[in-house]
Design goal:
By secondary structure, the chain is an alpha+beta fold. The chain has 2 domains: 119 residues, Beta-Lactamase (2-Layer Sandwich), CATH 3.30.450; 220 residues, P-loop containing nucleotide triphosphate hydrolases (Rossmann fold, 3-Layer(aba) Sandwich). It has 10 helices and 20 strands. β3 and β4 form a beta hairpin. α6 packs parallel to α7. The termini are close together.
């Protein structure tokens, strides 16, 4: 594998950072002090990677909605700093899931009752059209599963964390002032990265940043956004189906230099992204899919990477290319010049979108950058001369 790495191939000519690397502290609007941690119970070192990023998780607020015995169990859990989510399903044992674990851990032998679910639902409050709710002033997300009659029969209580340090993996690319699309499976940390990028662009790069926050996942629940987004502004979206309209409204009404949007998933949203990019606004977004090949094959989202069309070649051209007469070609410049596959929290594969799409459509393996942390948790960037879409 090491033989595939080519350190002399400069896929992206890296620019010297224009801004200082140290991270400013998170600015809390609630309570006292202005440091990154105003309460030792709310802050910790990220346990999943051990790399020393500062985490603010407001875990106590999430635990308050759980039954008392579950709350006490998790308070005494040695791995509570790695807690990912708590699952409460009617008639089943409550389960805690932790970062880095493929399975879960039962919190008790007794099953969840209807009364316990109703109490948790009342503590959370009203769910939106996407069956998601939040806890005001925090980044936590509570998602509901409903029966056919509309009754809540399950809750997924996801821990939201404000993490500093992830932006080091992509800081050099921010200097290009070009749009970046993040791909990755659920739970890999896409929203966490969006949140920190918003803060860094607003506070360090001094950009006018607007977050289109469909489910209040980036800026937290409530009318006042969480301090983790720094000076970025946040526009809430009444219904998920209206996300594309709010994206255009953000550009037309508030003159942003950067728009940040999570979970681009419809054709209307993809078209809104292209419209925004054509107006000279930098976009930072995430999309459904794990690999670039997923977006190429997805007719709904392929416009994000330029779109794909079938082209019929003449006989002479087909012979010159040594290809069939009908081939796939990219239709237009990509909306996002950079695309990052987040394979793991600290293992990213970076594409120059235009070049990678063209090479994949022609059956070739594009050049990519692998960004990861070494044994000392420093960011290492390697250029690889081979890529198959599934692994390196």
């Amino acid at each position: 594998m090491a033989a595939c790495a080519s350190r002399c191939l400069f896929l992206f000519p890296l620019l010297a950072p224009k801004f200082p690397l140290p991270h400013p502290p998170l600015r809390r609007r609630r309570g006292g002090g202005g440091g990154a941690c105003i309460d030792a119970a709310r802050c910790s070192t990220e346990g999943s990677g051990g790399w020393g990023g500062i985490v603010e998780d407001d875990l106590a607020e999430l635990l308050q909605i759980l039954p008392r015995d579950l709350r006490d169990s998790l308070q005494n859990e040695p791995r509570k700093d790695q807690l990912l989510e708590v699952v409460l399903d009617l008639g089943r044992r409550p389960e805690a899931r932790f970062l880095g674990d493929s399975g879960g851990q039962y919190l008790r032998d007794r099953e969840i009752s209807q009364q316990e679910l109703e109490a948790a639902q009342q503590a959370v409050g009203e769910f939106g059209g996407d069956n998601r709710a939040g806890i005001e002033g925090t980044l936590h997300r509570i998602s509901a599963i409903r029966s056919r009659k509309g009754m809540v029969v399950g809750l997924t209580c996801r821990v939201g964390r404000a993490v500093t340090g992830h932006v080091d993996m992509v800081r050099d690319l921010l200097n290009y002032k070009e749009s970046i699309l993040f791909l990755g499976r659920p739970g890999v940390g896409k929203t966490t990265v969006m949140r920190e990028i918003a803060r860094v662009l607003a506070d360090e790069f001094q950009k006018r940043v607007v977050i289109v926050d469909t489910s209040n996942e980036i800026g937290g629940d409530g009318d006042i956004p969480h301090a983790a987004i720094g000076g970025a502004r946040r526009m809430q979206v009444p219904e998920p189906s209206m996300q594309h309209r709010v994206m255009i409204e953000a550009v037309e009404n508030h003159m942003p230099e950067v728009v940040i949007v999570d979970e681009i998933g419809t054709e209307a949203e993809a078209q809104a992204c292209r419209s925004i990019a054509e107006r000279g606004v930098m976009l930072i977004g995430t999309a459904h899919g794990e690999r670039l090949a997923n977006i190429i094959k997805n007719p709904t989202l392929s416009d994000l990477i330029g779109g794909v069309e079938t082209v019929t070649l003449g006989d002479d051209e087909a012979r010159a290319r040594r290809s069939q007469k009908s081939i796939l070609e990219r239709k237009a410049p990509p909306t996002f010049p950079f695309l990052i596959e987040m394979r793991e929290r600290h293992y990213w594969v970076t594409h120059r979108t235009e070049r990678s799409v063209d090479m994949l459509l022609h059956g070739k393996k594009p050049l990519v950058e692998v960004r990861k942390r070494d044994n000392e948790f420093q960011v290492v960037i390697e250029r690889w001369a081979t890529y198959d879409g599934d692994g390196l």
